[in-house]
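Assemble and predict.
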Amino acid sequence: MTVSSPVQPAPEPAPDAAPPRLEETPVRMRLGNRPASYFAKVWAVARKDLRAELRAKESFSTMVTFGALAVLVFGLAFDLRVPEAKMVAPGVLWVVILFTGVLGMNRSFGAEVDRGSLAALLLAPVDRSALYFGKVIANTLFLLATELLILPVMLVILDINVLQPWILVGVFLGTLGYVCVGTLFGALTVGSRARESMLPILLLPVMVPVFMAGVGLTASVLDGREVADFQRWLWILVAYDLVFVTVAFMVFDLIWEEV
Amino acid sequence: MALLGANGAGKTTLIRIISGLAHPERGSSELGGVSFTRAGHELRRYIGLVSHAPLLYDTLTAEENLLFFASLYDLDDPGPRVESVLRAVDLWSRRRDPVRTYSRGMVQRLAIGRAILHNPPVLLLDEPDTGLDQGSAQMLHELIRRLGASNRAILLTTHNLDRAAEWADSVSLLVGGRIVHQETTAALDGARLRRLYAAAEEAA
Amino acid sequence: MSTLAAKRPIPHGPGHIFLLVLNVATVVAMAVLMWGAFIYARPAANLHGDEQIAQRIFYIHMGCNFGALAGYLVSLLGSLGYLLTRNLDWDRVTQSAIEVGTICGLGTVITGVFWAKPTWNTYWTWDPRLTTTTITILLYIAYLLFRNGIDNRITRARFGSIYALVAFLSLPLTFYSARWFRSIHPVVFDGNGNPDGQGGFLIGPTMGHTVGMAAIAFSLLFSSLMLYRWRQLRLEDRIHELREEVE
């Protein structure tokens, strides 16, 4: 099937008094690969996800509930044998972040596939990587918002003040790296059988550096050490984020060659 | 042009290949002489698709849905265009309601609105009439007629032979992944189409 | 059917002879390694009793480790090769390397556990090398499970390659964080390879030779297992194609 006519330039819009008729409204597309249009699309995808989530609160409420429950269960599990909650708090914090994040990232592309809307995104003249970064922004904000609620829960249940500047920096960097890889793997697993259980299996071994750096950093801060003692963990997190943003950007276009 | 065929004859596959959602196993697909495998996503600007799934976000309103897709298609100043499309599919009064509160027919109309939002020269309609009540079907017919009048290729698949004969300029019968018969609808009505269809099935 | 038979892809040609030679070499090298590990290598001078005997598992342990490392490197090569050329042979390289790598990795960990108990008096420790090896095995297994869940052959190859590439790039970072993790939280054992550390030993010339034998023997073993598996996967795909053609 061949079509030779380009998009027709439409006549000027009708005066304000009458509603515009279909044939008369202009359809102007800004062609070409300008960075501004790329970022506009990234933001459009992110805003669409945020707005849908604000309406339905589908994954956010699940993540917060699961996170709070996990903190509670860990608190109970260690209560009898661990004299000081401070000993387990760093591990609890990062395990909870990892497990909570998986829930959100499963939904990210999962919801698109379940509603059948993924095809609409793929039909649009959008770089796949713009879809990816839009999703990364949305997922990062979801996970950060969830963590903001979980940290006070930890404060109450474990009586540990994890709301310290360097811990928050670490949580932010770790979340970013986690979401970068998680969103990529979420797109990989969304078409496979048993996707809900496949994502954590793929994701957790790859997250080990983030996990160790996060735990190491949190423990050092809770021990009251100097920045010089734990800055290597920050560097690990920064390196991880940089490596995986780059890698994901490069390979994401390969995922949906055909659907 | 209407594309007719039984379930599994390859109608949807053909639509998916033309829209660039799927790559053919053998051979290639071209649009305006440009191969899909090489042109990348710029070609997608020239295609609108209505598929079985509505391809909409049901927690967003009709207006938000169209504005979102307008930004994906780089539409400049999308407001008036979105308004005229919503009016054309008769959803302007419900534009602020989330899509999940819509009836089947309304969702289908919005799906059509989404497909024509960027005024594509190629419009692919995969069974757009399923689940539509009489009024919506009438509106769809009217819309197809209007859209077809302005230098545009419209490819439509359907089960309803009478509709195919009435709506389309030409009809192709698809059996087992092959086009077995092609004819303009000038001398064609539902009854003759049914005979042709039965004969084609028989031969296969 | 005669046309199908004529297209049979792998005849008993030069490839077959190469595999035969490789097999013989592998068997000989493994036999020599056993001789080296049990007879030729002198006992570790600074160890005594059970520790001294257990130390001999080190040669198998190191050998398996070579296999696991080869699996890692070859799988990176295979996934890059597939993404660049889209030739399914590269995907089969990745899969076979990872399957054989999993076996070698498990061998490394299991021999390590046997060795650790008499020497360190514990089965497990968060030594950075041990941690990294274990995570590698988990990645290998995740890769294989993931592949199994994808029905389309081409998608399976592409997604598998993407995962193998992305996931294995995290391993260097895993290794470094595991190393620093311990230096901040000193655990019971100092296994950093210095002879004074618990379980460390002095390498004499005969022991060095035997490590060399282990490297050669296990590289050969890895190659021949991998080549057989690669060939088998290739035939499997071919059977699949032919079956679809017949249907």
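Chain C touches chain A through 30 residues (CB under 8 Å).
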